[in-house]
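Handout, page 2. Input:
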Amino acid sequence: MMTQHRPTLTIPASDWHRWRNEAGKLIRPHDDPLGLRLPRGWSVSRRNPGKVLCAFPGLKLKPGFRLAAYQYFDGGNGNGFVYALPQDAVLPEPHTVAKPEDLRTLTKPPGTLGHFMEAIEGDPSVESYAQASLLVRELYEFGAFWHGIHWDVEHLVTGNPWSPENSDPGAHDLPSPKGEWHWNAPPPEDWRPKVTIGGEFIAVTFHTFSALGEETLTRHTDTYLSGSYVPRFAEPARIATGRESFIF
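Output:
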């Protein structure tokens, strides 16, 4: 039996970082970076999460849909919850969907799609699937403050972080020498983000570095059905750990 060829394409580091940086500018509340003007508890977000799509030229909202979000904020900590809904629909007041036993958990608002990425369509280029993997993580962190932040402290790694020839911006985020890391898997031969096309499935693979709690290198893999931008997440693989680091 012949093995089916699965073409793998690399995403240029410059594109990968540009999409992430542009998304960060659009999704962070620069007019209120600490959330000081947010009401305490639940509210319908005054910000439009759909604006972040401007950072991803291969993606757009499907006609007739929009994105909206709930905001939770208390004691400097915050989380946002994004939903896709028909263009002329509104989110109900948060007290109607917040669970009394856990005020930070919502039931699905009526009239919204099962996942906000169901309202997203693309060109559908290889780049559009890589962009979807960044978009979904940015929207999961929409409205996040302080202890609600996770993705924002993950730095994209697109080249060997210990190579003197590496010009990747993430290279300088790893203060520990390679010999001080504990490896759970062999180091990647190629750190560049990749899109693998296999039949009706498309896989996006990339690496990040975080220093929250301890230094970690993580491999992320998202799988898509061709034509769909709703990712199926594989469990992030922590391929290496370094020194203990900061907490907040």
